[in-house]
Amino acid sequence: MRIGYAVAAFLVLAALWEAVKAAVPARGVAIGDLRVLPRTTDAAMPHLWTVLTVLGESDGPSTVGATLLRTAGFTCGLALLALAIGTVVGIALAVLMQRFGFVERGLLPYVIVSQTVPLIALAPLVAGWGGKMVVAGQPWRPWMSIAVIAAYLAFFPVGVGTLRGLQAPAKASVELLHSYSASWWQTLIHLRFPAAVPHLLPALRLAAAASVIGAVVAEISTGTAGGIGRQIIVFAQQATGDAARLYAAVLAAALLGVVVTVVVSVLEYALRRYARPAGGAR
């Protein structure tokens, strides 16, 4: 059913795209110096079938489609790695803040403020710092900077969502485990973590999207080749009169987000027994 809704939404967007291209003048519509409707020339807004057919065009030793598949695969691996790192860091911070109230009061504001730092400004800094580091005797690789930058975006929703979930069990449930002489660790494993799952899963969906966005932006900001982000820049520079390749790359990046979200959906299916939210307060 979800797949059907996704396909229907894509078809609606495709129909709207072609309707705008057919109805809006090639030069767009402007009121004075303010443009209210975009240009619809092939250089600005190609037909969707042109975007699809360009996948078979030659792009050096391979086709455009093969290039996009290879670069999207590279970015997908980094996004999944960033999602894993962000999930581990987010859950660890949430457990720490739930365990110690003073840590939550002191750390949570900084966790929130951290997301206001522009990623495009942070990426060169991380790449510069990483270039001076050595990990296990190996020099820092550019892809490591991309993973760290993307994880920086991914950890926030996981941390906040998990913290809310860990605080969700009713006070009576916590006191019941205490009456059985359950330790803090046992309470965490048998009560708080299961109660946090309904809050964690939506957070993971947000983190999955954030990891893809972070990886693409980091590739562009650091100039790292091999990923879909850098390929978008390459095709943008080649777009002289026809932007079909550029839109094909953008579409590939969007589908990459869908792939990473599907991975999270598999995790949701595995944890479906904990899907019902727990009521009550901390």
From TrEMBL:
The record's subcellular location field reads:
Cell membrane
Residues covered by the ABC transmembrane type-1 domain:
72-268
Q: Do you know which PROSITE patterns this protein is assigned to?
A: ABC_TM1
Q: How does it sit in the membrane?
A: Multi-pass membrane protein
Name a biological process GO annotation: transmembrane transport
* Assigned keywords, A-Z: Cell membrane, Membrane, Transmembrane, Transmembrane helix, Transport
The protein's matches in InterPro entries, at most eight in alphabetical order, are given as:
MetI-like, MetI-like_sf
Q: Which Gene3D superfamilies match?
A: MetI-like
User: GO CC: one term?
Assistant: plasma membrane
User: What are the TM regions of this chain, as residue ranges?
Assistant: 72-95, 107-131, 143-163, 246-267
Q: Which family does it belong to?
A: Belongs to the binding-protein-dependent transport system permease family.
Q: What is this protein called?
A: ABC transporter permease subunit
